[in-house]
Amino acid sequence: MADPEEHPSDLPQCPSMPGTGLLPPELRAWMVLLAATGAVEQRLRSVVKERLDVSHDEFLILCLLAEHPREGLRMTRVAELLGRPKTRLTYQIACLQHAGLVIRRSACGDKRGVEVALTEKARGLLREASGALAETVAGALGHVMGPEQRAAVRGLVPGLHEAAPATPDDHRQTPAHQEEAPAPG
Fold first, then answer.
1. Ordered domains of the chain (ranges, CATH)
2. Is the terminal CB of the chain with fewer CB neighbours within 10 Å at N or C?
3. Residues 91-126: tens digit of each pLDDT
4. Is 40 left (phi over 0), alpha (psi -120 to 50) or beta?
5. Backbone phi and psi for residue 24, each to the nearest 5 degrees, phi listed first
6. Could you tell me if 8 and 146 are in contact, meaning their C-beta atoms sit under 8 angstroms apart?
7. pLDDT tens digits, residue range 154-172?
8. For residue 155, what is the DSSP state?
9. pTM over 0.90
């Protein structure tokens, strides 16, 4: 694994760059996505623990629910979207409920179905942490992707850095432009 303090120019070429490898472009692109996902997850773990005091998997649940304001989602749908076994999800939801971050309720019109939604406490924590989390994602992606890949991904991640990787303390500072952004619904 690369040292997070390395400069991107010190890293080996990105697997999606043109070359004489055996992989077709689709598989090279998939390898870049896997490397990027791994880098983001690795850097996010400590920021998520520090800012939200939840595990990375619990954080993913919170993020998924944050994209479905107020109404929540059925637990079966959360498990499907995250690719998690329902039994593991039940445990994680119980931990989040115990922390006061989600609520569970019966699905409307279906006694067997269970919906889960964010609490106001969770919404507040996500709002407070969003700048540091976004900066961490952008820094991690900027670290593992070459210039062409960063340009391609910038439509999905507008804050993606053009140059050097984030320093370990970058997640503690919130850029001024992110503090002024309206809070998500």
1. 25-53+123-179 (no CATH), 56-121 (1.10.10.10)
2. N
3. 999 999 999 999 999 887 777 889 999 999 999 999
4. alpha
5. -70, 165
6. yes
7. 777 777 765 444 444 443 3
8. T
9. no
Contact 115, 128 (CB under 8 A): no
Separation of first and last alpha carbons in the chain: 38
Distance CA 39, CA 97 (A): 29
Residue 39 amino acid letter: A
Side chain identity, residue 10: D
What would the pLDDT profile of 62-88 be if each residue is shown by its tens digit?
A: 999 998 867 789 999 999 999 989 888
Cα gap 69→184, rounded to integer Å: 9
Cα(13)–Cα(146) distance, rounded to whole angstroms?
8
